[in-house]
Amino acid sequence: MKYIIPILIVLFAFTTAVYTQHDSEKVVAKELADGTLYGADINAEQKVLTVTDIFADLKGFEGKTVVVQGDMSEICRSGGCWTIVTDGKNNIRAMTLHKFILPKEMDITNKKVVIEGEFATKEITEEQAKHFAEESGKDPNEIKGPQTMYRIKATGIKILK
Question: How far is Cα 86 from Cα 112, in angstroms, rounded to an integer?
Fold first, then answer.
């Protein structure tokens, strides 16, 4: 009995900490004339690239801050922590790194998006790729082996009107 109360206290504290962490991750949107902004403002001075532009010079953009416009094709349905921007052929995962989140229930059909952040190419494990597939509602069993992920560590994501 003397061990049950300390164990319950530890479990309660852990549960409270977990819920507090998730509660602090709120969707904060800024309505603009041309869209809805999540995270930091997009640098209006920087040239807006397409996904096609990035894929034409992957090594040249590696580690550089870019502003990319394209179509949304996926979103993290479990936490709103990433989205995919595409040109219909090539995909870049824009990751918020939990500095801000997107509305995970959002209908992304026909949505155009502008993303600013640092571009990088990263090899991910099969397990990581399966995790991303699960978060977007895809079948993780279709993933086989390590994958190459093209990503932007996003500082801001604007969903255009």
Answer: 10
As a whole-number percent, the residues of the chain with pLDDT over 90 amount to 82
Tell whether the model's pLDDT for residue 5 goes beyond 70: no
With 0-12 / 13-18 / 19 or more C-beta atoms within 10 angstroms meaning exposed / middle / buried, residue 71 is middle
The sign one gets for the Cα dihedral 117, 153, 14, 130 is positive
Q: What is the DSSP letter of 142?
A: G
- Domain edges within the chain: 27-160
- Asked if the 27-160 domain carries CATH number 1.10.3210.10, the reply is no
Instruction: Return the closest-CA partner of residue 98 out of 38, 14, 33.
Output: 38
The pTM (predicted TM-score) of the whole model is 0.82
The dihedral region occupied by 54, where left means phi > 0, alpha psi between -120 and 50, and beta the remainder, is alpha
